[in-house]
Write a structure and sequence with these properties.
Helices cover 52% and strands 11% of the residues. It has helices at 2-8, 12-21, 37-47, and strands spanning 27-29, 32-34. A two-stranded antiparallel sheet has the order 1-2. It has three helices and two strands, in the order H-H-E-E-H. The relative contact order is 0.17. Strand 1 and strand 2 form a beta hairpin. The N and C termini lie far apart (38 Å). The chain is mainly α and 54 residues long.
Amino acid sequence: MAEVAAVMRVSKMTVYRLVHSGHLPAIRVGRSFRVPEKAVHEYLEESYVGVESA
């Protein structure tokens, strides 16, 4: 989760919220979660808000 948070530049709690809400897919391994790198990049691409120049 810490690595995902660093890549997304958000807190670990935000990543946990995204996983628990179903917005970011993850695999549970024991008591921790594993988020596929591809899932992180897809989420960021979907969430991207472009800025159009005037």
